[in-house]
């Protein structure tokens, strides 16, 4: 399995350096790695082979060796793995020195809040998508979900841009999420066709 750092993390490093918050970014990076470890542990427990893991500003993206054979229930548990790890991390932070604990808890809470937003490619979106596979295995429902993700992501980025420069960090993260949603939305026809095959296999 390959673990890589997404290129967008580099400008975030420069933002932290110029703002004198490099130590704060170290806490963010640790939180992202901890969060992603939760997904990887869940994948191992579900018996799913992981091809690669890319650490992004909001968490990470996992690619499976053979996504067509991954069950919807496994997708659900793997998506839940990250938020569960973050919640555990928040609990462990209470046993650390107060100065470190406060910053770590704040970062973990922001990471959790961002990731539970129910749009692709966030964990909340992956959880909802897995539930759709399990409860409503119909292609048009999945395509409607991609449209909803695109609309919500667009609203979020417009809101954060309105409050620039105070929200520069969230703006960068939301811009990245919006670009990821745009990519998913543009290729939704191909993904829906693939998901039809997956749903046919699951039902």
Largest sheet: 3 strands, mixed
Oligomer: single chain
The run of helices and strands is EHHEEHHHHHH
Radius of gyration: 17 Å
- Tertiary shape: globular
**Termini distance?**
30 Å
Strand percentage lies at 5-15%
Looking across the biggest beta sheet, what order are the strands in?
A: 1-2-3
Low-confidence stretches: none
Q: Averaged pLDDT, please?
A: 79
Helix content: over 70%
Tally of extended strands? 3
Protein structure class: mainly alpha
The number of distinct helices, counting runs of at least 4 residues, comes to 8
Question: Care to describe what's here?
Answer:
The protein has 203 residues and is mainly alpha-helical. Helix content is 71%, strand content 8%. It contains eight helices and three strands, in the order βααββαααααα. A three-stranded mixed beta sheet has the order 1-2-3, with helices on one face. Strand 2 and strand 3 form a beta hairpin. The longest helix has 24 residues, at 22-45. It is globular, with a radius of gyration of 17 Å. The two termini are 30 Å apart. The model has no long low-confidence stretch (mean pLDDT 79).
List the helices and strands and how they pair.
Elements: E1 2-5, H1 9-18, H2 22-45, E2 50-56, E3 59-64, H3 72-93, H4 98-115, H5 123-135, H6 139-162, H7 168-186, H8 188-202
Parallel strand pairs: 1-2
Antiparallel strand pairs: 2-3
Helix pairs in contact: 1-2, 2-3, 2-4, 3-4, 3-5, 5-6, 6-7, 6-8
């Amino acid at each position: 399995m390959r673990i890589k750092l997404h290129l967008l993390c580099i400008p975030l490093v420069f933002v932290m350096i110029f703002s004198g918050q490099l130590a704060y970014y170290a806490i963010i990076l640790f939180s992202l790695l901890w969060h992603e470890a939760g997904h990887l542990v869940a994948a191992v427990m579900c018996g799913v082979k992981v091809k690669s893991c890319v650490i992004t500003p909001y968490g990470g993206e996992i690619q499976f060796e053979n996504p067509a054979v991954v069950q919807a229930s496994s997708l659900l548990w793997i998506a839940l793995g990250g938020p569960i790890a973050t919640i555990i991390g928040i609990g462990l932070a209470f046993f650390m020195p107060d100065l470190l604990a406060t910053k770590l808890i704040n970062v973990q809470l922001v990471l959790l809040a961002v990731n539970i937003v129910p749009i692709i490619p966030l964990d909340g979106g992956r959880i909802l998508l897995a539930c759709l596979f399990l409860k409503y295995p119909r292609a048009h429902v999945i395509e409607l979900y991609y449209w909803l993700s695109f609309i919500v992501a667009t609203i979020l980025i417009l809101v954060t841009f309105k409050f620039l420069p105070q929200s520069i960090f969230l703006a960068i993260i939301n811009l990245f999420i919006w670009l990821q949603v745009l990519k998913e939305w543009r290729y939704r026809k191909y993904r829906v066709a693939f998901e039809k095959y997956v749903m046919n296999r699951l039902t």
